[in-house]
Each structure stands twice: as C-alpha cells, then as structure tokens.
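Kindly inspect this chain:
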Amino acid sequence: MTALLLALGSASPTFAAGPEPTEPVQTAPPAEPEESNLVHAEPEQVDDLPSVPVKPPVDQPDGRACEPGYRYFATSKSKDYHKGVGVTQSNYNGTSRTARSTFTSEVAGKVGVSYSGKLGVKVSVAIIDIESEFDVNVSAEMSVSTGNRIAVDTPPKKTTNAKYGVYRLKSYGYSQYKYANCTNGVKNNVTIYTPRRVGWYIWEN
C-alpha cells in the first residue's frame, strides 16, 4: 500500500478535484479497541454459550415457568471506533503551501462484531437489543470495497494519514441466564463493538 505523493511546484500545478472528506480531519491517530482482548464473533452463530448451570438459585418463585436460556441487555453506549482494513496510507507535504492529498482504498474485506466478556447469545439477539435501547442502526457485518477515493487538504509541513474501514459502535451490557423457574443467574458484563458505517478516518501529524 504505497502512500500517494503530492508536491506543489513553483509553476502552481492544477490538482484534480476530488470528493470532499466524509469525516472531519483529526489531529491524532484513530482510536481503536485492543483487538487482542476481543472475541471476533461470526454472524448468526452462538457465541461462547456455556452449558446450563447445574444448581439453580435457592429462591424459587411459586407457580411460574420461564423458557431457560441466556438473555442480553444493553445498558449504555460510548462512541464509534474505527476498524481499518488494510494499511494506513500517508502523504507528507514538504512545501510551504497547502497540497491536495488523494487516497484510494486498495483492500477489500469484512468487519464484524467483536466483544469482550461472556456474550452467551447470538449476535443478532444482541444487535436487536442494542438498536432498541439506543435507537441506532448497527449490523453483524459490513463489507469494505476497493476503489473508494477521498481527497483532503494537507497543510504545509504536515503529514495526512488515511485509513478506510468500518466505524463500530462501542456499547456496554450484560448477559444473564434465566432458569425455568424464572430466577436469574449471575450477570456477565459485556463490552461489544457493532459495525455501524463504512468510511475513512483521516488525521494529521
């Protein structure tokens, strides 16, 4: 992934116009979750589903029956974190004038759900609760294609960095087992990243 090189000459060359950036220029590298601490979930697959606990809680309510199994409850959300596909592209403007940097996505791929903790339910189940709780649209997986282009200004003596990928919503919740007698098991805290939109992340240094 070779960084595109632009430079301004004394003859004031004309730069090809490109689409305006879809994201504001940042001054720091993109914040990404620590992937080594996350489980990468497969869409529509039961994730880390443990066996039914042997001993239900002692306090058993009278005359009630529930379908046993794990439930997921979304509790709060954070912000969108960018998960890049492919390497970061960079362009240094060594001139004294603003230059136009153009970047093109060169790697195709897919970005899915990642989480930490014991999810215990299908990804689709967690997504339904997240969308309902926070009034957002998220997906189990989003595809990144090649050929998407973005053009941004690079200030003098600055480097513009660009990475194409997927923004994922970071949210928090917990999974909990419900027994047939309608009592609940231990809460398992979960941090989950769900794909929300495809786009560029641009920053300067």
Summary: Residues 77 and 134 are 8 Å apart (CA to CA).
